Amino acid sequence: MRKHLLAAAALVALFGGSAMAADLSAPVYKAPPAPAPVWSWTGFYIGGQVGATWGTAEASLNANNNLLPGLSGPLAQTEANGFLAGGLIGLNWQFASWGLIGIEGDFNWTNLKGSSPCLIIGGCHVSHDWIATATGRFGVIYDRALLYVKGGAAWTKPSYSVDFSGVGAVATSSSSGDTRVGWVFGTGIEYAFTPSWSAKIEYNYIDFGHKDVGFDAGGGATFSASVHEKVHLVKAGLNYKFNWGGSSY
């Protein structure tokens, strides 16, 4: 009887060990790793920017004036320059791994101003307190970098003035002007250094076209000039994107 028990125990040990060895040699299957999160430019963003601005106001005297009756022609070419600081809001939609479209609006305070000789006996002056734009954007994406172009409308409310210091007059003639509307074209590069923060450098060219500006020189004397104004902006800024959909990298 004892021999039978020992034989049974040996068989159990033999087959049990074989099963355990088989279990140990069997391949272990693991779930595949989760895909890496994908960075996306899609979303609403806000930002701030600073930069420099310069431009030219080309003025031509109109013939319908009673200050210098019958005279017309080039009046002045006034160079202006200054600094700017402002904010922006925008919305991007990334439609493919390589591209996006979007809209953007910004408002910038500026001290853009300049002076030049005009009317032989005086000086012409121009100044701007603010410049705003509303544009559409198209961008090409490479990893976290975005190269883009933009275009749309621009607004400003310049102030023009003429003085007669050349003849010792203390009076000036001026016109605050209406809000001017023009078109803007821009290009820039933006780099996303976190899932929400990006930095940019951008250039804008703005053409406000021709506009007749009237002046009151006092004593019933009036004149008008056609002013063609072009402005350049260079901006550096930071944007914060609200992370729709939790996309990140």
Quick recap:
With 249 residues, the protein is mainly β. It has one helix at 2-25; strands at residues 43-61, 73-94, 99-110, 113-118, 122-127, 130-142, 145-156, 159-163, 172-175, 180-192, 197-218, 221-241.
Can you tell me about this structure?
The protein is mainly beta and 249 residues long. It has a single domain (43-243), classed as Porin, CATH 2.40.160.20. It contains 1 helix and 12 strands, in the order H-E-E-E-E-E-E-E-E-E-E-E-E. It has an 8-stranded antiparallel beta barrel with strand order 1-2-3-6-7-10-11-12. It has a 4-stranded antiparallel sheet with strand order 4-5-8-9, with no helix packed on it. Strand 2 and strand 3 (99-110) form a beta hairpin. The model is unreliable at 245-249 (pLDDT under 50).
The overall pLDDT, averaged over residues, is: 84
How many strands, what sense, and barrel or not for the largest sheet?
8 strands, antiparallel, barrel
**Whole-angstrom Rg:** 35 Å
The number of domains is 1
Which tags fit this structure?
10% helix; mainly beta; eight-stranded antiparallel β-barrel; 1 helix; Porin
How do the helices and strands line up, and which of them pair or pack?
Elements: H1 2-25, E1 43-61, E2 73-94, E3 99-110, E4 113-118, E5 122-127, E6 130-142, E7 145-156, E8 159-163, E9 172-175, E10 180-192, E11 197-218, E12 221-241
